[in-house]
Amino acid sequence: MRDYGVFDIIGPVMIGPSSSHTAGAARLAKVARMIAGGKVIKVDFLLHGSFAKTYKGHGTDKALVAGIQNMDPWDEALRNSFEIANKNNVAYNFLETDLGDVHPNTVKFIITKEDGSVTQVTGSSIGGGNIIISDIDGQKVEFTGEHPTLLTQHKDLPGIISKISSILYEENINIASMKVYRNGKGKVATLALETDSILSEKVMNLVGEIKEIVNVKFINPVVEGAF
Amino acid sequence: MFVSSGKELIEICNKENIAIWEYTIRGEIEKSGLKRTQVIDKMKHNLSVMMSSSLYAQENNVVSVSGLIGGDALKIKQYANIGETLTGDFMVRAMARAISSSEVNAAMGRIVACPTAGSCGILPAVVISAWEKLKKSEEDLVHALFTASGVGIIIAKNATIAGAEGGCQAECGSAAAMASAAVVEMMGGSPEQAFDAAAIVIKNVLGLVCDPVAGLVEVPCAKRNIAGTVSALTTADIAMSGVKSKIPFDEVVWAMYKVGRQLPPELRETAMGGIAITPTALKLKEEIFK
């Protein structure tokens, strides 16, 4: 029996019409932007399943473009996100596609940044505005963004995770969960580490200084009043 | 942890001589680690969004993204203003409030999911209308929302509040049950009377299917928010008169869940059955997605 809080029942505050197709889509895009980092200049949204079939009627398209511009799922400007993107020179395309055996509300983001680099993120909106990120640049992952999440790519060598956890210990940040993913031994591994408290720029910089770390991102939860 | 049944909640409330809303606030403090004032402030914030959503479409011509619905809250409000309604000013205004939030939701405006976006019109319309009529304090109104969420938590734990799982009875039915219980406590009814109201509301919509035209949260959802609002308000009076639910709340919730599981997938938010596959609905769908 799942435990519910008061604000799971009365909440979230969100822009309609659908918690999964609108609020969840905005949250997915906002998290994808945090994963990509840098200044976004172009995004291709590959829409799968119910997202592909009903995105116009649910405003999924507007929600995605809003999230990619860092807007929150409860921001009333969400419905004007196309105009805002045009003003900020952020290009966007929607492509209806089949991403295979995935959740019906799945989107793959192909995000191009100012420096020309591209990040690909796949995620699903699983109901009630909740999301799961399932793939980053071809690496399978699984995290929800409900907790502050530290995401690193590092050389798959002994001791790296211990270096990261030492930094968190020194900053008095408790680790809630941790998962490591890799495509092969000794190559680049991806770590998704969820914590109990908000991650700061400082923590990210300290982790980034570990020389085996290829890149580091942090994703703080998209929750009203989280900061 | 929050109790798992209405029966337990009533027992605790009676033993400690507290209302459902008080138990629910205490439970949230324990679960979240927040201070009492923080929990109450969060609810006040939600209330302010409810106030706006239930009013906005009564004063502005709101049209949904698809163009399928809009303008009905305005119509009902203007009708109430003429003063020649059958069910009275109070009821007609409550109906306008309900559909206002639903229209704001469909037009990509800001709402509070309570418990879902599709059923977001019911709770605000019911508690705000009762609060206004009974001339209660803002504190009472906020407390009513905690009563509603306490009842909602028990429904969610034992059944479901998702249309895709349990049909509309689980969404609009749960919203109306929560709202009716909230009004009963606002009127000074006991926790037992509040759960009787919730049980009666659910029994009266048992089996209600989720069949959105074109898969959008618009038709028939917006008008089902009106129906849920009326049911919640009238049932509060039934419970306050002393009428009880012959079947206890927990058993009704069990039945609701079971009925939800027995509904074929076509009638659970897939837009493959019910109203959604009528010739007119299919034509509308084609026009929207052409």
TrEMBL record, chain A:
Catalytic activity reads:
L-serine = pyruvate + NH4(+)
Q: Which cofactor does it need?
A: [4Fe-4S] cluster
Under InterPro entries, the record lists: ACT-like_dom_sf, ACT_dom, ASB_dom_sf, Fe-S_L-Ser, Fe-S_L-Ser_bsu, Ser_deHydtase_bsu
Q: In this protein, which residues make up the domain named ACT?
A: 149-224
Q: Does the keyword Cytoplasm apply?
A: no
Under which pathway is this protein filed?
Carbohydrate biosynthesis; gluconeogenesis
Q: What's one Pfam family the UniProt record gives for this protein?
A: SDH_beta
Task: Cite the entry's keywords alphabetically.
Answer: 4Fe-4S, Gluconeogenesis, Iron, Iron-sulfur, Lyase, Metal-binding
| Alphabetized Gene3D superfamilies for the sequence | 3.30.70.260, D-3-phosphoglycerate dehydrogenase, domain 3 (3.30.1330.90)
For this UniProt entry, the molecular function terms from Gene Ontology, in alphabetical order, are: L-serine ammonia-lyase activity
Family indicated by similarity: Belongs to the iron-sulfur dependent L-serine dehydratase family.
- The protein, known as: L-serine deaminase
